[in-house]
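fwd from M.: "can u put these together and see what the complex looks like"

so here's what she sent:
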Amino acid sequence: MSNLLEVRDLTVSYGGIQAVRGISFDVPEGQVVTLIGANGAGKSSTLRSIVGLVKPSGGSIQFQRNELKGSMTENIVKKGITLVPEGRRVFVNLTVQENLRLGAYMRSDDLTEDLNWVYDLFPRLKERSWQAAGTLSGGEQQMLAIARALMSRPKLIMMDEPSLGLAPIIVQGVFDIIREINRQGVTILLVEQNANMALKAADLGYVMETGRITMQGKGSELAENEEIKAAYLGKARK
Amino acid sequence: MKKQTEAIISVALIAALLAVLFILERTIPSTSMLFTVLKKGAIYALVAVSMNLLNGFTGLFSLGQAGFMLVGAYTYGVLTIPVDQRPNVYMYYDGGMIQFALHPIAAIIIAGIIAGIFAYLIGLPVLRLKSDYLAIATLGFAEIIRAVFQWDKLGPLTNGSNLLRNYPSYKSVLFYFIAAGVCIALIVMLINSTYGRAFKAIRDDEVAAEAMGINLAHHKRIAFVVSSFFAGISGALLAMYQTSIQASMFKSAMTYEILLIVVIGGIGSITGSCISSFLFIILSEWLLRFLDSELVIGGFKVPLLRSGFRKVVFSIIIMIIVLFFRQGIMGTKEFSVRRIFNRITGRSRKSSEGRNGR
């Protein structure tokens, strides 16, 4: 299976502080890949640099063998990568439907089919298509953020902590949707602090600590790893 | 109600309004205060809507409107003074350096374009700023431009600190309504386009808008230039209405007046800005004039009424609005035929919107 995204020796710095210190990882096409790690490990910085919101200071980011480093966000979105930003960030004063149309901002073709597709995935959004996004509940806003990202018809969708601040039952729903989207052929790069859920859902997992990747492997194997259990899954050390 | 019937009713209402204005002009003496107020109201409605495009729809808090109006007003004046009048107007500068005169309509459009060019150049450094800092920078620009236009060395072009006058102007109130109406319609079309949706997205959340692939710098620049273009046009209309202009008129107080109109009408509502601009002009120029003159009823001198008291009353109104009616007259809603129709027939908004789509 070919790699959709290949990141090599990526470094990101803010002023003098290095947030990402030379990480390398692959995202194979059609899989769910997760980056887990504690606050400040550099997970969000990695995603933001892939989509061009922050400029990486070194390394390379290859998407379908094309170098992305230094491209504008709009061109990266056009190539087929979208980010579901941390904390949902829906456009609160716009209706659900307007939010969805904005997700497809870089496209100029007909959207009817895609609107129907995401409304099928998220029936709740269809019921509320005329409501302002700010009036939705947290879980519904997260669904909207994911649906909005899907409207650009991405090959790779990157999600930054989609379970943040949601009740366990809603988190379950979010992960069900992630699996469903993946089943329909979209590759997913997932950043999570909820390591247990993320590793269960993922084909491939990477563990980040203070800007470096310290462990990698199949999602199911990492979930069984004693060290990870101790560090992230709440199991007491011996 | 069908979209088509709605459009027909809207067009009919506009036609009726113009017809009423036409008849009024034939029946009431042209010196009536009514026409003064209507003309100025139309001009202020346009500039308020252009400010709303920036402040209300794109979330850029700019206070440079008076500066761009000045550029537009001067462009109009300089380009349209008849050649035989120039020695008269530019008496201190040997008739000035421009020795031709354009048709008023062409000059109005050029006034907008020049204001837009100014906006583009100023926008390059200034649009990197956010919120308060942007407001301070644009306010500073407006003050600087006012000083520059009065500069003696630019006299052959701008007539220094002297009046520009004797340029042609349309007297009919219809002209002001049609000009402002066409411009406002263009702004509404922009707001309802995909660009407008991107503006609103930037207003709501810059980071998310950028993540959707919306180029922030590009879209902010478009909003800024378009808003200034229409501010320039309204400046040209104001020059026409006042028959003479001077740079010292375009003080920051003018920007605050416009900002006040936008806030009263509702930030993010086009129709709100239009309604409140007429309301504001009618009150300040006409109905509340009595507050400025002393009044004696049966030997009793009413206290407080003297020159300047009008401003005090206005300040109190502003405070009341800011404290209790922060949404303004319309909030972010729009006044529309369908809304009224639904109100009358008592149908719920949701059901009709759901069916009509948008």
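replying to her w this: Chain B is about 70% helix and 0% strand.
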